Amino acid sequence: MLNQLLNNTILIAGTVAFLSGLLIAYLLIKSSIPKPKDKDRVELEISHELEKELEKVIREAIGESSGDIKKRIKNITEISIDKYEKHFKELNKTIRKSNSEIEKTLAKKEKKGEKEIEKVIQDFTKETNQLKDQQKKIQNKLLSQLEKETEEIKRVKEVILDKLSNHLKEKVSQVSETSRNVQKEISNNAKEQNKRIEEASKEKMNKLEKVSNQTIENLSNRSSELFNKLTQKTTKINKDLSSKAINVAEQISNRTDQKIDNFGEKLKNELLKLRKEEKEEVSKRIEKAKQEIEKYKEEREKEINEKIYQIIAKVAKETMGKAIDTSSHKQLVMESLKKAKQENFFNL
Amino acid sequence: MNTFSNITKEITTKTELVYFLDDITTAQESIFKNNGENLSNKIKGEVSEPFLKFLEKKEQEKALTSKDEQKNFLKELSDYLQSIPQAKLTLAFSPSKDFIQEISNWIEKEIGEKTILNLTINHKITGGIVIEFKGKYLDLSLAKKINKSVAQKIYE
Question: Is the pTM of this model over 0.90?
């Protein structure tokens, strides 16, 4: 769009420059022409008109060009505005769409988050169990290893002892066989040697025992260290997991509490509303019942009055009817007829 | 005063009018019986005395010589009698003939024309009169007055 505008501007500028150049050229040509002589007058007058015409043409050309260019700029501007407006509308649509999608995604994520928390707890529990199992396995392995090593040491010790005893036996038998003559010396020597050997063997035994004890101690220390390290790590992991689990549990508990509180509040409001409605309904019914009772009362009063009135009227009529004699009847009839006349009853 | 004024003096109530119209019917049915005999002779003993006298008087005036004259006369009489206005009066007692005549005279005087009284006795009206005349109704009974005054007293 900007390129298009730039191109148009360049085009306009070019056109204006071209026309300006044309005008300048014309003016230069005009100034360079010498003033006409008398004999060239007619021709020059014609040239003057031509010159005017030319000027007019140039001005019109400039005017038309600038008019066209203005129109084109206007058109381009309008098109650009329309396009930008469309573009902005589309952008707005896209933003709205994105917002709704983000809202949906957020809602989904919120749900997903809850599920993930549950999953994390499950995973943590699973991992903790796995770690415990691993720890047990390692402990068992180490113990079995220790047992094996101890057995190995014992076996080595026995082997050494066996070898030594065999060696001694051999020596003794050799000494007894080869030097019976110098039995005493030999026996002394043998005894001494035996003693030495015994001492040596004792020493060796002690050394071996020391070595084995040290090895056992080292192994024990090492296993203890490993065990301690493992215990520490496990404790740390357990602590971390516990703290995380506690946090998660607290969060869940808080959320649940909040939801329960909200639900409770809503329930309370609903109950209050229902109670209010019921109260209003009961009041309305009471009012209606009162009105009905009042109406019934009025009707009954009316009926009773009517009956009383009928009874009284009947009694009065009967009493009067019996009491009136013929002359009074006649008089009443004539009076009634006169009254009818007064009321213009007979007039049509 | 028309041709039938004299005879109408004899008719005051609707009962009398019905009897009279019956007499006319009897006369009309007797016109063509026993040729050569007067109509009055033909119906003697079958009609009321006033009607017979009225007919004899007309025969003396030579107004009923031909059968056609008799027929036309009776027809005109019947039509006239049926065209007389009627007033329905309800009374609480049985009036005497004189009192009925008194009422008839009074009404004729006040209205200015002959009126047949259609009388009904109803003790429930206690006294006074209830009148129905030419589509109009007026209750001037004592019962109505009693009802009104009792109602007023009760609802005061």
Answer: no
Q: How many helices (H) and strands (E) does chain A have?
A: 4, 0
Residue A312 Cα to chain centre, angstroms:
89
Long-range contacts of A304-308 (CB under 8 A, 24+ apart): A305/B154, A305/B155, A308/B154
Contact B126 A320 (CB under 8 A): yes
Q: Which member of B127, B134, B138 has the closest CB to residue A324?
A: B127
* pLDDT tens column, A276-331: 999 999 999 999 999 999 999 999 988 887 888 788 778 877 777 777 889 999 99
pLDDT digits 0-9 by tens, A200-259 = 767 777 776 777 677 767 777 776 787 788 778 878 887 888 788 788 878 888 888 888
What percent of chain A lies above the pLDDT cut of 70?
72
A323 CA to centre of own chain: 104
Q: What is the DSSP letter of B10?
A: T
Residues of B in contact with A343 (CB under 8 A): 138
> DSSP for B33-97?
SSTTS-HHHHHTTTS-HHHHHHHHHHHHTT---SHHHHHHHHHHHHHHHHHS-EEEEEESS---H
Nearest CA-CA distance, residue B22 and chain A, Å: 30
B126 touches A333 (CB < 8 A): no
Q: Taking all residues of chain A, what is their mean pLDDT, rounded to a whole number?
A: 76
Among all residues of chain A, which has the CA nearest to that of B156? A305
| B151, HSE (Cβ side, Cα atoms, 13 Å) | 10
Nearest C-alpha in A relative to B140: A336
Phi-psi region of A52 (alpha: psi -120 to 50; beta: other; left: phi over 0): alpha
Cβ-defined contact of B129 to A333 (cutoff 8 Å): yes
What phi and psi values does residue B122 have, to the nearest 5 degrees? -145, 110
Across the interface, which of B102, B150, B155 has its CB nearest the CB of A313?
Answer: B150
> Do B142 and A332 lie within an 8 Å CB cutoff?
yes
For residue B147, what is the DSSP state? Answer: H
Length of chain A, please?
Answer: 348
B139, HSE (Cβ side, Cα atoms, 13 Å): 11
* B55 CB burial (10 A radius; 0-12, 13-18, 19+): buried
ipTM of the complex: 0.86
Phi then psi for residue A160, to 5 deg, are -60, -45
- H helices then E strands: how many in chain B? 7, 4
**pLDDT score for A17:** 58
| B127, B129, B133 member nearest A320 (Cβ) | B127
pLDDT at A82: 80
Across the interface, of B124, B133, B154, the residue whose CB is closest to A308 is B154
- Domain locations along chain B: 5-83, 86-155
